[in-house]
Amino acid sequence: MPVSRLTLLTKPGCHLCDEARDVVDTVLDSLVGAGVAVPELQEQSIFDDPELFGRYAEEIPVVLLDGRVHAYWRVDPERLTRAIRGAEDEGER
Q1: Which residues are registered as beta bridge partners of 37?
Q2: 6-91 has which CATH code?
Q3: What does the domain layout of the chain look like in residue ranges?
Q4: Which of 5, 35, 70, 86 is surrounded by the most beta carbons within 10 Å?
């Protein structure tokens, strides 16, 4: 099943969040360039949601694919690419 939601949980002033955003943007750009359907990136600050703050305050940044944790602290571009491509491949079966 294709990934329908890609969420980056962040907090203001977080340098790891800036790095994660750059990695995610680069992966999405490369996949779009390769003709892969990708979900729109939604970014959310944990300060805007007390539940997210309580759950992820020590793990920021967090990448969620369809609401499930894919990565935290550091985002591996190859792993994210495989996850999105893998979901796309499964959706084509």
Answers
A1: none
A2: 3.40.30.10
A3: 6-91
A4: 70
User: Residues 88, 37: contact at Cβ < 8 Å?
Assistant: yes
> How far apart, in Å, do the first and last CA atoms of the chain sit?
9
Crossing angle of helices 77-91 and 15-33, in 10° steps, is 40
Contact 3, 86 (CB under 8 A): no
CA distances from 82 to 29, 36, 55, 58, 86 (A): 14, 12, 26, 26, 6
pLDDT, tens digit, 9 for 90 and up, residues 8-21:
999 999 999 999 99
